[in-house]
Specification:
alpha/beta; 3-stranded antiparallel β-sheet
Length: 449
């Protein structure tokens, strides 16, 4: 399990392994190994935060002695979790929280406690722990998005509630995630702030003008000496009131569009963290394929999706030129974990076949080269979803936002930059897609990056 880097940086910690740089796209991490001291932080394979005493302390202490501090309880809990003793690990993390931990220890205990609850399917308890981390310890929501140990939690309704709370922001959960979303929104709609400024300024001017014009209208109705013309004054009031109403409506509409955009950005961020398995058995996050492929998600019943993929195979060459990557999602299909399979995204990739030596049969060598070339093409054309529950949950949320009944057969085409290009009911018309999408190397494709 991972921890938010920002809270640790505030304690002036340094990394003794390869330095980690902050970027908008988190790099793929395989087999992370971590040891956290008060002055050292490393990444651990199980993605947990480990609090190990400084090198000057004794390394021969027994587990019974280590349980006396919050730090040792966290370490013991991680050891128990790595052995599959999740219930016992949960007890250790709870004990750590009752031993007056410092902020780093409290954050580690709470976050790892949330991961234990997620492992046990206790979504509400996991959400409460993560909510406390976000509010009191400045945990980055991206950490929750990235952690493979929370994959099962991200498919639960409690995660959707937590994500929605973080998007809206508030005292109970903090505003960091909303600030990040608003920064992305400003990049995508740079003139929204300018428009809203003019809406406010002009509506204020219309309101002030109305304030002074209404008394003149009353005088015009009274018909006293020197009263203004009734029709002219009534026309001015109508213009001011109409302008004020329209400008306020535009301002509210702009706010509504911003909230819709923030919700879509939040969904896009969740989408970018969904895992795929390529034909070489290598597991990647969708974000790693940005600027390279245009994923086309085909979600529906097995026979419908299979038929659409067979039709796509007829245009395979042209679709590859346009960077199309097929991502089939079968409703209700849950892949049973294989015995001995690693939890998370650290599954080792399958080694590529070695080409025959120059002395071997020429025909065999030619077949191997052809097979390897086909394998490279297959990596770019079709991929398998790793966490079907997460994918289904995201697609159903997208269907709700588009006014489509959740569970219907749909397709979703993504841009090269990872955003949704368009979607529709049923399966796509591949000939229409060929006409719509430019080749990856074309100028129009470069504008998508």
């Amino acid at each position: 399990m991972a921890m938010a880097a920002q809270a640790l940086h505030q304690q002036c910690l340094c990394f003794s392994s390869n330095p980690i740089t902050t970027s908008t796209t988190r790099p793929w991490l395989h087999a992370r190994t971590t040891t956290l001291t008060f002055f050292q932080v490393h990444k651990k394979l199980a993605h947990h935060i480990s609090l190990i005493p400084s090198p000057s302390s004794s390394t021969s202490q027994s587990p019974e002695a280590n349980t006396e501090t919050a730090e040792s309880c966290v370490n013991l809990g991680l050891q128990l979790f790595s052995k599959g003793r999740v219930k016992d690990a949960l007890v250790q993390f709870e004990t750590a929280l009752n031993l007056d931990p410092n902020p780093i220890e409290a954050q580690a205990a709470l976050y790892n406690k949330a991961c234990c609850h997620a492992y046990r399917g206790e979504g509400r308890k996991a959400a409460d722990c993560l909510r406390t981390c976000l509010r009191e310890y400045n945990l980055k929501f991206g950490t929750i998005l990235n952690d493979p140990d929370l994959a099962s939690f991200r498919a639960l309704p409690e995660y959707k509630e937590l994500q929605e709370e973080a998007r809206i922001g508030g005292e109970d959960i903090g505003y960091s995630f909303r600030r990040d979303l608003k920064l992305i929104s400003e990049v995508q709609a740079p003139f929204r702030g300018v428009r809203r400024f003019f809406y406010v300024a002009f509506s204020a001017a219309a309101g002030i003008s109305t304030f002074f014009t209404v008394p003149r209208l009353f005088r015009a109705f009274a018909g006293d000496d020197g009263a203004p013309d009734l029709l002219e004054t009534a026309g001015n009031v109508a213009i001011n009131v109409g302008g004020f109403t329209v400008l306020v409506a535009l301002f509210l509409w702009e706010n509504k569009k911003e909230e819709e955009q923030l919700a879509q950005i939040s969904r896009n961020e969740s989408l970018s963290r969904l895992p795929l398995r390529l034909s070489t058995n290598r597991v990647v996050e969708l974000v790693q394929l940005r600027d390279t492929v245009r994923p086309v998600i085909l979600a529906g019943k097995k026979e419908t999706v299979s038929s659409s993929m067979q039709q796509a195979a007829r245009f395979r060459t042209d679709l590859l030129l346009r960077g199309v990557l097929l991502v089939p999602v079968i409703w209700g299909e849950v892949r049973a974990p294989q015995i001995g399979e690693k939890k998370g995204f650290g599954t080792p990739s399958k080694a590529a076949a070695v080409l025959p030596s120059i002395g071997e049969d020429f025909e065999k060598r030619t077949q191997s080269i052809t097979a390897k070339s086909k394998l490279k093409a297959e990596i770019r054309f079709k991929a398998e979803v790793v966490s079907p529950e997460e994918w289904e949950s995201w697609i159903r949320d997208q269907q709700k936002s588009e006014g489509v009944t959740p569970g219907e057969d749909v397709y979703i085409i993504l841009r090269l930059d990872g955003r949704v290009r368009r979607s529709g009911k049923g399966m796509p018309d591949w000939q229409q897609i060929l006409q719509e999408l430019p080749p990856v190397e074309a100028l129009l494709s470069k504008l998508e990056r």
